[in-house]
Amino acid sequence: MRGLHADTGYLLYRLGLRSGQLFNAFLQESGLRLRHYAVLRFLSTAEGTLQRELSAQLGYDPSAIVGLVDDLEKLGFAERRPAPDDRRSRIVALTGNGRAFLRDTDEAGQRVTNELLDPLDAADREALHTLLQRLAEDGLN
Q: For the chain (length 141 residues), average pLDDT per consecutive 10?
């Protein structure tokens, strides 16, 4: 019988939990959680995104997106605008304050990643990232 750490899926799950714990601890002072941070990071790569697109791209329930965007709006990090094609739909966009928050947290976020990946050298980190990216592209769509 295989041991628990012989199961790759379990290891990915545990590392995901640990990564979430580290990121949530780093974000604690701001009042945000990793899910908020993910929305901000996604919005930083787009001029504006439909709420339903955010849900699909991040894999979050649509009702969760509404709450996350509400929180980010209250902080002034994101704003909703009517979609030009359909006024019933809302586009979510990053504000200047949201961009500033991401700039201010870049270094701390990198420290969290470095702590998690500390046992790996640069080549191993690059290889891991490449493999995870390939899995995410195939398995998360």
A: 80 91 87 92 91 90 94 96 84 96 88 92 95 83 59
